[in-house]
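Usage

Read records sequentially. Each one opens with the input sequence:
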Amino acid sequence: MSREQKIAETFVELADTLVADFDVIDFLQQMTVRCCDLLAVADTTILLAYPGPSLYSPAPCDPSPALSKVMDLAMREGPALDAYRTATAVTPGNLARAPATWNDFTTQAVEAGYTYASAVPLRLRRQTLGSLLLLRTTDSPLPLADLALAQAFADAATIGLVHARALDHADSVNEQLHTALHSRIVIEQAKGMLAALRTTSLDNAFTTMCRHARHHHLRLTTVAHHIIDTGDLPRPLSPPCSPAGDAPAE
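and closes with the structure output:
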C-alpha cells in the first residue's frame, strides 16, 4: 500500500466514530500507530486533558524505553502542554535551544536520545482536547509537510471525538476519557499477564491482543478482561450449526 493510500485510510479511520460501540482507547491507539508509520518521527504519543489544566496519557501503548522516560514530564511541561494551552502548534522544537520553562522535560528528553520535540493541538474551533507529541532523534527538525499532516490528523481526531459525544448525549467526551484511564490500567495488566504466560515480550503480547480484538471484532478492553479472568484470549463464538443435510457454508 502506498503512503498516499495509508494517509487516506487514516482519515477514514479517524472519521469512523459514529458507532454505538465506539472505543476511545482503540481510536487513540490506532492514531499513534498511524503517526509513527507515516510521519518522520522516532516516537509519538497523545496527551489528553483531564477536566482542568492538566494532561494525561490514555493510550494503552507499550512505549519505547526512551518515550517512557519523558511521558510523565511531558504532561507537566514542554511542547505538548504548550500546544494544548495555546491551541497552536509548537515547532521546530530543537531541544538544544528549548525554552527555560521546559528545563526538566528537555533534560530528560536529551538523556533519552531525542533531539527535536514538536507538538500539535487536538482542537476544534475554541475547543482543545489535548495534544499530539512528536519526537525525533535526528539532526534536523520535523519536515513542515509532516507537521501539517500531523495537525490534520489531530484535527480529524478531535472532530471524531466531538462527534462521538453527539451520539450519546448522556455521556460526555470527558467521561469517556476518564473511563479510558481506568481501561489503560486493565490493558497493561492483561498485557503483562499474557507476556508471562506465553514467555514473550510485552510488545508481542500487546500486538497479539490488538490483532485478536480486530480479527474478532472485540473491544481491546474486552480482550484484556478475559485474559485477566481466564489467563487466555477469548475464543470466538462457534458458527451456528447447519440444518441436517445442508452443505457446509463456504
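Summary fields computed downstream for this record:
- The chain has two domains: 3-169, 179-230.
- Residues 239-250 have pLDDT under 50 and may be disordered.
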